[in-house]
Design a protein that fits this description.
about 20% helix, alpha+beta, 2 helices
Length: about 150
C-alpha cells in the first residue's frame, strides 16, 4: 500500500483558492473542485489541486474547515473571490500514492500511518492535513510537524 513516508524539511505551500466550511457531501464542495479544475485547464492555475484541512472530516462527522486551490500560474482571468494562502512549516511528513482511485486507500488511512510513523520517531504533528490531487492519479498526503 504505502511505499514510504518521507520527512521533508523547511516546507511551504502557496496556493490561490477559496475557503470552504461545510459537509464534504455538499454540492458546493464538488462545485469548488470543478471551479479549481476549470482554472487549471485555462492555465490560470497549475496543478495539483491542493486542499488544506484545518479540521478533518472524521473529527466532525463529515464537516470540514478547509481551503481548496492550486498554484497560481497567471493573475489575469482569476475571479476576485480567490485569495492567496501561504503557509510555512518546519517540515512535513509526506506520502505519495500513484494508483487507480478505486484501489487507493483513503487519506484517513494514510494519515493514520503517518501518525504511527510520527509516534515511532518522536515527531509532533501539526493539526493540519494537506492533500494534493495530481492528474496522473497520484495523491500526495502531507502533515506538517513542529
Amino acid at each position: 500500500m504505502v511505499q514510504k513516508i518521507e520527512p521533508s524539511m523547511a516546507y511551504s505551500v502557496k496556493i490561490s483558492g477559496k475557503p470552504f466550511k461545510g459537509r464534504i457531501q455538499d454540492s458546493a464542495w464538488k462545485n469548488l473542485f470543478y471551479e479549481i479544475h476549470d482554472n487549471i485547464l485555462k492555465n490560470i492555475l497549475r496543478e495539483p489541486i491542493t486542499i488544506i484541512y484545518y479540521s478533518k472530516p472524521e473529527q466532525h462527522k463529515g464537516k470540514v474547515d478547509a481551503f481548496i486551490g492550486a498554484e497560481l500560474q497567471k493573475k489575469s482571468g482569476l475571479s476576485a473571490e480567490f485569495t492567496e494562502k501561504e503557509l510555512t512549516f518546519r517540515g512535513v511528513l509526506r506520502v505519495e500514492l500513484t494508483m487507480h482511485p478505486v484501489i487507493m486507500p483513503s487519506p484517513g488511512k494514510v494519515k493514520r500511518l503517518i501518525g504511527r510513523f510520527a509516534t515511532d520517531n518522536n515527531i509532533t504533528l501539526d493539526s493540519l492535513l494537506i492533500e494534493k490531487y495530481h492528474s496522473d492519479n497520484t495523491l500526495t498526503v502531507e502533515i506538517p510537524y513542529r
